[in-house]
């Protein structure tokens, strides 16, 4: 699908909790972009919070439900059970320590990749770090584990090559990159002379709302945009 994003729960929650849910409608109108979520993501960020006795996440769920009702977000599904199981098995067998496999991703993240493959959506919106790095920079994960645990981490090239065939061509965006696109498109012009300050503040707000972005990445975006 052209001009389409398949969104993980992490990025939607980051933007909605940061009061930037309107960014989806803005970019849809500006560029004709469609934002899709899977039924599993809808259950996680709408259905489950609205059915819980604890009300802490109810406001976000109601905002997201309204976005779905207004088709700012669209629900999409595909028969991906077999592919999801295969991809999860591959992803969780890429790295190991002394023969013990390192569990990296769960069915939710894997299903997102499977649906993207099946429906030919090549843009993923994911704020969670591990899935993004597994697609874009697997050796960064290896280095992180080695530095954090102080042990050698084995990388199974054969398993990763098989996994890579399923993720090749996918582009991963975070909520901060979406904010950058929106900034360049005029989303922050309502702040007048303070539009750039508002953009930078939004980047920090996204980070503290859950987006896996480093401070130096924020500083670089602030400097060059």
Could you walk me through the main structural features you see in this protein, from its secondary elements to its overall organization?
With 225 residues, the chain is an alpha/beta fold. It folds into 2 domains: 4-37 and 39-75 and 174-224, no CATH class; 81-172, no CATH class. The chain is built from 12 helices and 8 strands. It has helices spanning 9-17, 22-31, 39-51, 58-69, 81-91, 107-119, 129-136, 138-149, 157-167, 175-184, 195-208, 215-224, and strands at residues 4-7, 34-37, 73-75, 95-97, 100-101, 123-125, 154-155, 171-173. The strands form 2 sheets. It has a 5-stranded parallel beta sheet with strand order 3-2-1-6-8. The protein has a 3-stranded antiparallel beta sheet with strand order 5-4-7, with no helix packed on it. Helix 3 crosses helix 4 and helix 7 packs across helix 8. It is globular, with a radius of gyration of 18 Å. The protein starts with a strand and ends with a helix. The relative contact order is 0.15. The model has no long low-confidence stretch (mean pLDDT 93).
Q: What is the H/E string?
A: EHHEHHEHEEHEHHEHEHHH
Neighbour order of strands in the largest sheet: 3-2-1-6-8
User: pLDDT under 50 segments (min length 5)?
Assistant: none
Structural class: alpha/beta
Number of strands: 8
Question: What integer value in Å does the Rg equal?
Answer: 18 Å
Estimated share of beta-strand residues: 5-15%
Termini gap = 28 Å
The helix content, as a percent range, equals 55-70%
Estimate nothing, just give the exact number of structural domains.
2
Number of helices: 12
Largest sheet: 5 strands, parallel
Average pLDDT rating: 93
Shape descriptor: globular
């Amino acid at each position: 699908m052209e001009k389409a994003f398949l969104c993980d729960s992490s990025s939607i929650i980051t933007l909605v909790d940061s009061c930037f849910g309107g960014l989806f409608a803005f970019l849809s109108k500006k560029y004709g972009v469609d934002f899709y979520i899977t039924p599993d993501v809808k259950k996680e960020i709408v259905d489950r919070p609205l059915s819980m006795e604890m009300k802490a996440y109810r406001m976000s769920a109601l905002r997201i439900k309204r976005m779905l009702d207004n088709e700012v977000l669209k629900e999409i599904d595909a028969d991906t059970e077999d592919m999801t199981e295969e991809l999860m098995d591959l992803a969780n067998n890429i790295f190991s320590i002394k023969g013990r496999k390192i569990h990296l991703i769960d069915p939710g993240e894997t299903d997102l990749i499977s649906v993207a493959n099946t429906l030919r959506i090549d843009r993923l919106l994911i704020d969670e770090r591990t899935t993004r790095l597994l697609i874009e920079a697997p050796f960064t994960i290896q280095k992180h584990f080695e530095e954090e645990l102080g042990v050698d981490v084995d990388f199974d090239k054969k398993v990763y090559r098989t996994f890579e065939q399923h993720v090749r061509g996918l582009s991963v965006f975070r909520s901060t990159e979406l904010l950058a696109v929106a900034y360049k498109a005029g989303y922050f012009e309502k702040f007048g002379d303070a539009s750039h300050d508002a953009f930078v503040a939004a980047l920090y707000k996204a980070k503290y709302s859950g987006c896996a972005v480093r401070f130096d990445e924020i500083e670089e975006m602030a400097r060059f945009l």
